[in-house]
Amino acid sequence: DVMDEAEASKSSIPKNIVADETFWEEDQIIAPLPSSHSSVEKKFETAVTSAWAFFRFIDGLMFDSRLYDYKFQQLQDDPLYPYLNSLVGIADGGEDGYINENKRIMQKPKKEYMNQSPLRICHSLAREAVAALPKLQVICADIGGRLGMQTIAVGPIKKPTAALLKSERKYDGNPLLVTDYCRVSLFVADIATLLALIEIVLSKYSSVVRRIKLSNLKSTHSSLIGGYRDCKINVDIEGHICEIQVHLESLWNLKEESGYLHYKRCTENSVTLSTFDLGRTLDGLDRSFESDLIKAGEASVRSTPIDSLRYNNEEAIRDYSCLVSLYLHHGMPVRAEYTLRKLVKVRAENPNFGPNHAETILFLGLLYRSLKSQHKFKKAAQVRERISRAERCQRSDDDSDLFGLCSKDQCKAIDFVVDMIVDPSRKERKEEQDKADKVEQSRKYWLEVRRSFFG
Length: 455
What we know:
- The structure is a single chain.
- This protein is α+β, with helices and mostly antiparallel strands.
- 56% of the residues lie in helices and 7% in strands.
- The protein is built from 17 helices and 5 strands.
- It has helices spanning 2-10, 37-75, 81-86, 118-146, 160-170, 191-204, 249-255, 258-268, 287-300, 314-330, 333-349, 358-373, 377-394, 402-408, 413-422, 426-449, 451-454; strands at residues 152-154, 183-188, 209-213, 231-237, 240-248.
- It has a 5-stranded mixed sheet.
- Strand 4 and strand 5 form a beta hairpin.
- Helix 12 runs antiparallel to helix 13 (377-394).
- The longest helix is centred in the first third of the chain and has 39 residues, at 37-75.
- The relative contact order is 0.10.
């Protein structure tokens, strides 16, 4: 205790501090800084506007993805498509563009890679790509010259950091499975030119070809994320796998150079045609905020009232399409119905779409949904019948009038039905035979067309 008192006497800090006055006066009130009510409202309005812009952005990604799909459907009308669709690629795993792809080619493993980090391996492969690029350009220039191509696009060497991210996203962290460090793009006018290009590659460069990937161009295969489809050819240039990307001009011209940005944005936002549901982006939103979102959307189309909408007002059409999703999700089917009837009309009038186009059918399906939610079952049934007619018009193998034929026994329809009962697998066998016949006719047509390329 004596030591403690001695230490305390030396300290300049008093043992007890007594204050006669507190820091705050008794009548002074502690309160937060005053804030402007108008500034809070402005921030909220900005948040709502940003939310609408994002919702519209996601819908735009979906629409652009569908455009690729529509163009691909048109490509299938080419008489050479059945032959292309029947071809089997080389080392084609059929899963390009997807996570955990079962890729059948890879960069050559080296002993020094065993003690290197994945990023260092990516740096080594990028240096190899720089050395391989001139020879890849020579090969592509030769192919392009033989086919009269005017444009060859040489891509930049993939950065090691980008390659590492790709390997982690798609290949479970294996950088050797990244085969597009060095890449060149070729553009073909049609399927005939694509078939000729493949024939040139197989006849002249078969010793260096490691993969020809055609699966993305097959009717039974899903597209890349974002809806795009192309052909990829991988060649070995002195031990380094390079990539030749072959683009069909009809698909490329939809977005041109911005096509990759569209693909990247779809990847970042997990937007795929097969699984993405735009309505799910609204789940969990407060109803009052959703109502403000509708107001923001309606404000964006104020300059183009729904009654004055024309088929060439594409941006306004897409804005109204977003509004329909909001109306249906918010429980406003009457407003959705009114908007959808106009959207169906303008799509049907558009020469690029038409009454039986998939985009028109999409709006008809939403109209059917809005009518059912209002218990307008008779009108909903009429819309359902219109959808069925449009879908039948899209199919070339239309069996829609079978029962009508049966009633009049036209074309021996009753015999056909009886045969189906006795032999239920007959239809499947007939479909397979018809498919084989189409492929053979398409192949024969290619043999005629190829003379224009090879004499």
